[in-house]
Amino acid sequence: MKKIVVAGGCFWGVEAYFKQQDYILNSTVGCVNSSVENPDYKLVCTGTTDAAEAVELTYSGDLKKVLDTLFHIIDPTLSNRQGNDHGSQYRTGIYFESAEDEKYIKEYIDGIRSEYSKPIMTEVLPVENFWPAEEYHQDYLDKNPGGYCHINLDI
User: Fold this and answer.
1) I need a labelling partner for 120 at 20 to 30 A (CA). Which of 9, 31, 52, 94 fits?
2) How many degrees, rounded to 5, is the angle at CA 63 between CA 90 and CA 153?
3) All domains of the chain, ordered by start, with CATH?
4) pTM score > 0.85 for this model?
5) How far is CA 135 from CA 28, 35, 40, 41, in A?
6) Tens digit of pLDDT per residue, the chain (155 long)?
7) Catalytic site residue 10?
8) CB 90 within 8 A of CB 82
9) Looking at 10, 31, 45, 149, which residue is catalytic?
10) What does the chain look like in DSSP terms, one character per residue?
């Protein structure tokens, strides 16, 4: 079992899409790399915490599967937005815990750079902190079928 934190816009859809993958063992939505200890959702939405909405994933197998899935559902060339969501908390990112993962992620991005006509804006940083979001955000789209999602969950 391995862990990684990914950000791809609104965490509801990112979590829902990843949960469909058979290699995902657990997921938790929250915020990553906040300058404020344990911020609530409303504070994160102000853009004053430096946090990104993110999903902590526990997975089995190869990190490549996680990265392939993330880059399938995001536009990595956008800065601080995905879908209709705008703001620094909606940036895309990959947050690692080991130097080995950092090296692999950077090599992966270098390998796909030519597939895009604009620069890749997805940040690659160590996990400084991860704060789980309030319970009503966990598994949100399971609890609220038809709720807002910027990701096509049928693909």
Assistant:
1) 31
2) 50
3) 2-143 (3.30.1060.10)
4) yes
5) 10, 21, 11, 11
6) 999 999 999 999 999 999 999 999 999 999 999 999 999 999 999 999 999 999 999 999 999 999 999 999 999 999 999 999 999 999 999 999 999 999 999 999 999 999 999 999 999 999 999 999 999 999 999 999 888 888 988 86
7) yes
8) yes
9) 10
10) -EEEEEEESSHHHHHHHHHTSTTEEEEEEEEES-SSSS--HHHHHTT-S--EEEEEEEE-S-HHHHHHHHHHH--TT-SSEETTEESGGG-EEEEESSHHHHHHHHHHHHHHGGG-SS----EEEE---EEEPPGGGTTHHHHSTT---SS-TT-
Which amino acid makes up residue 146? G
Query: What phi and psi values does residue 12 have, to the nearest 5 degrees?
Result: -60, -50
Per the structure block, which two tokens stand in for 116? 């895009």
